Amino acid sequence: MLSTVAIRGYRSLREVVLPLRRLTLVTGANGTGKSSLYRALRLLADCGRGEVVGSFAREGGVESALWAGPEHLAGARRTGTAQGGPRTRTVSIEMGYASDDFGYLIDLGLPQDSQTAFARDPEVKRELVFAGPVARPTTTLVRRVRGFVEVADDTGRGFDELARNLPAHHSVLADWAGAVPELAMVRERLRDWRFYDGFRVDGHAPARRPQVGTRTPVLADDGADLAAAVQTIIETGTGDLARAVDAAFDGASVSVAVTDGLFDLHLHQRGMLRPLRSAEISDGTLRFLLWAAALLSPRPPSLMVLNEPETSLHPDLVGPLAELIAAAATRTQVVVVTHSPTLRERLGAEPIGADGDVWEVELYKDWGETKVVDQDLLTTPAWDWGTR
Predict the structure, then answer these.
(1) How far apart are CA 73 and CA 139, in angstroms?
(2) Mean pLDDT across the chain, nearest whole number?
């Protein structure tokens, strides 16, 4: 389970170090940085897929994603005016996590070659894989500074050279995971994370079209394999999906029709002479079924991040959705970005530092900087950014 997520220098996240629980709700008013946190987590996951450079380029490059305020805000808070000044550290976007086994940190910066046509591609300046909750010299297992990569030796007191010319646009996770078990474990953890963000339910949505079906233990991010995922859940024999649909839609049920290998979801409702095909299901109903298929995954990912799952659902469906989220959190770690007071109440979220496994992280803005309500030294996890 992840214990800490840390982001520095990305958009409004000037420096955020968050504790995570089994179920963490991220709340706050519009514009407080919830979407930036969600996107930062996606970028961190992209490191495991070797896609982080391309993801930043599509955002406009590191320069457009950087924290846009002054490096230090003490003067602005004191004088009431934000002003720039001499920099004391390098321009960078840093992201990382700590967990109950290994942690990872990546430092991305501006490209050094001013003549390249790929000026939006960030360069990987530094990477660390470490054991335990904080990166220390004694807990570091793999370290990369620019192109030079070292791995801890058998004594645990020194390092052996692994590579000296790793390209600046390559992550050590992509190039050397096959040679170092710890890198492989971090890479697979990041690849396993799943993000679900407001499924499409319009007339041309992937979930409305019959698809070739194969066994699908984890729903795709866009929900295109919904019918196959539902059939996979049905064949587990748990009955969880049937109970959720029955409770949400007054005795309704779902099935999957298979024609020449094409899977199509059917919804059976009381009083109807025939089931509704996926193309006919109402938007809100289809959206709930997509969330149910994601949350009832027979092989849940190590981390599931949900972005405003209550959006466009009828208020009566928020309760059943909360039950699905709570059940999923007993089998995997879940982060939910939400605006819904009802969802927060039904999940029993408590403030940071409480004894329970469901915490609420409420964000707010202070001089453009995203901060956490009531976070102090006792509730901020230990974290060491290190230096280049």
Answers:
(1) 32
(2) 92
